[in-house]
Amino acid sequence: MKKTRLNSVQKAAVESYGNPILIFAGAGSGKTRVLTHKIAYLIDKGLVDPKNILALTFTNKASQEMKSRVHKLVKVNDGLITMGTFHSVCARILRTDIHHLGYTSDFSIFDIQDQISLLKIILEEMKIPKNQISPKEIKNSISYYKNKLITPSEALKKASLVIDKTYAAIYKTYQLELLKNNAVDFDDLLLLPLEIFKKHSEVLTKYQDIWKYILVDEYQDTNKPQFMLVKLLSGQKQQVCVVGDDDQSIYGWRGADIRNILDFKKVFDKCDVFKLEKNYRSTGNILDAAISVVRNNDNRAPKELKSNEGPGHKLGLIETNDELEEADAVVNALEKEIKLDKRNFSDFAILYRTNSQSRALEDSFMKSGIPYNIVGGVRFYERKEIKDLIGYLSIIINPKDTISLRRVINFPPRGIGMKTVDKCSIQAEKDQIEMLEVLSNPQCMGIKGKQADSITNFYNIIKKYNELIPKLNAGELVRALVEEIGIKEYYNKNSLKDDQDRYENILEFIKSIDDFIAREKEASLNQFLEEVSLLTDLDQWNDQSNRVTLMTIHASKGLEFPVVFLTGLEDGLFPLYSSLDVKEKLEEERRLFYVGITRAMEKVYLLYANNRRRIGSDDLYGLVSRFINEINEEKLEKISFTSALTRKVIRGKRGKHTRTVVKRTVVIFDDFQVGDYVEHSIFGTGKVQALSGRGENQRVGIEFKDGLKKKLVVKFANLKKVDKPQ
Question: Is 218 a catalytic residue?
Answer without folding.
Answer: yes
